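ok so i was messing around last nite and threw this chain in just to see what happens. nothing serious, just curious
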Amino acid sequence: MTASASPAGMMLRYRTDLRACDAVVRATGNGRGRIRIDRTLATSLLVQLGSDRRAEASDTLPTEIALLPAQSAGVFARRGWVGDILLNDGQRLGARTWLLERGKSDEPDRVAAIGYAAEAVAPVADYWSQDVQTAAGWLRPGVLQIVVSTSGVTVRTPSVGTGGAA
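result:
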């Protein structure tokens, strides 16, 4: 399915002081305001990158320790959004970058982050018929930044923490 109109929805912006996304309100006077409308793909991309996608059955969870059998962190260990069951054709919301929490800050982790980001934003790109480019780079050991660009819009994740230095 593709859309024919331009995107329009509530605008979100990442706030470093909160370490979270927040709705953007445009002041209109008398202490009142209105939710700003985002007519770009920035908010959609930010939601996809900032949400935890459910891990695949074949994924190794950050809490699992190699060579220890019968590990289980319970029903919520694979994270994800419960509303995924309402999406078409097995679609999933979010990114699996959280799987890199115990990473080693090396090239395989950077490449995996690019793959996870591309997987996360693919439904947005498909729906709006846009080409999306994903990249990732180390800001410093243990802190990886993902960059997604399309149609003059660039979204940067604040950071993806990995376990430690290589």
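not much to say yet. The two ends are 42 Å apart (CA to CA).
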